[in-house]
Records
---
Amino acid sequence: MSLTIGDTAPDFEAETTEGRISFHDWIGDSWAVLFSHPRDFTPVCSTELGYMASIKPEFDKRDTKIIGLSVDPVDNHDTWAEDIEAIQGTAPNYPLIADTDHNVSKLYGMLPADVEGESTSRTPAQNATVRNVFVVGPDKKVKLVLIYPMTTGRNFDEVLRVIDSLQLTAKHAVATPAQWTPGDDVIIAGSVSDEQAKEKYPDGWKGARPYIRIVPDPTAA
């Protein structure tokens, strides 16, 4: 069964390039991004892993851990990391799960439950559905699910933008409009009554319709 927003992210234990982890314990009180790959030594994924390594400090600023996944064993991951550094200039500086038994891929609905056999015997095309991004909150709930085709590299700047929105809206009763970036105006959440909104925003709000109540970003300087 596929995961959706609001589901508890399945916990699991797995070998990674940084040792064995228990996923929920590894997340701790942080946010987390799990992004998966159909196989090692694939071209688009190589660019993604290198780019994620280069922007890891941005995730660190947001108290967000990042972890990759591929069905290959750890030894392959280590060799791939050398290629990625040569190609992209930055080797992965975060753990990469060795999902050799396909357990995590199945738990997260990326592969059918009946998939069996040696992981390295499967082609990237057979694992085409293992091209996902999951953002998980400190409460271990799934906050975002993105699924990409093999031919389209993922935009991780957009993932950062979504995390900014998720963290803002988790603390304040607001929503973010289309094309929002930090500092832009936000929308008072529909769960907030006009009476409650007047208490929080005594200067009022603007909007073309009563149900669109636009106010400044409450965290903007």
---
Amino acid sequence: MAPFTASIAAMYQDGLLAHHRAPRNRRVIDAPTAIGARKNPVCGDEITVMVALDADVVRDVAFTGRGCSIATASASMMTDAIVGRTVGAALAVADAVDRMLHASGVVASAEAVLPEALTPLLGVAPFPGRHGCAMLPWQALREALAAKR
């Protein structure tokens, strides 16, 4: 595996910052099927995820709250990545993000399972202190979908 170079890090950082500056689906869903909320008391990040399901398929997903650039970007990317997926598939993507972040540098195998919309999160993997930021919206999603399983 090639080392995590500065140019790769910059590419991932640009992707994260684009989602932080202009987050997608940062809004309220009028009649969500499920809601999950998570807070990080250490840094003050708070993310609420709303999901609208059609049977077992994620028809719409949105988030509100405040968070650091990584938490906000991760929430934005998450909304892009899971719309149209079944609940099981959405949870599998959440698991893949978790595995990628905790893979101790095994980025190549994680890239194979991550949807393209989530590749900027690979830039967070080398920084264990920021894994919680990236996972916060995914934990809120899991909470919301757990009530629907």
---
Amino acid sequence: MGLILQIFLSSLLLSLVHASIPSHWLPLIAISKAEKWNDKETMYVTAITGSSHTISTIIIGIILGMIGYKLSESYHFITKIIAPVILIMLGLIYFILEYRHSRIKNKHHHHHHIHVDEIIERRKSKKSIIFALSAAMFFSPCLEIEVYYFTASRIGWLGIGIVSTVYFFITVLGMMLIVHFASKGVEKLQWHFLEHHDKFISGIVLILVGILAFFIKY
């Protein structure tokens, strides 16, 4: 029961951090304003693009989870020791990337995964814009949660299912809520820290999750 709770809470934490990263929702707000979409249209597009992003992540995650589960049957230390170590190392790598980015002055303020300016300038139809956004999100799977599938696979399909379900609903719903409130004027809040330090925040979460995985037994 302890491991199930740990997997649930860790998946929840990773998903919340993931959904809150500005690169996932700021482009949607920028495009919705440029195209003069109403709130319903914006929520619709956010749900589609968010689902596209999570589906590709879950597909890869399930494959990694299956590999981890097969390995854990013969090599228990892989999912008990190596998987948490990978999470911690990935967190440290994010710290290094954060440090490197802080030393390099970015000439462009917006550095989202989605090329907002290109999409807006082309003035595509709504269907084309949705397709472009969905494709961009689909081919940008979440690396943080992918690695965690290894740890979740320690309890087989139950763990894989918990991660997939929590990640899908929390990410999509989280993106929709943030886009909704940001579109209502909450964007005036200072998102600068999140926007420019997403790797630092992700690194902290990954290290905490990795350390937690060492102490949960099943």
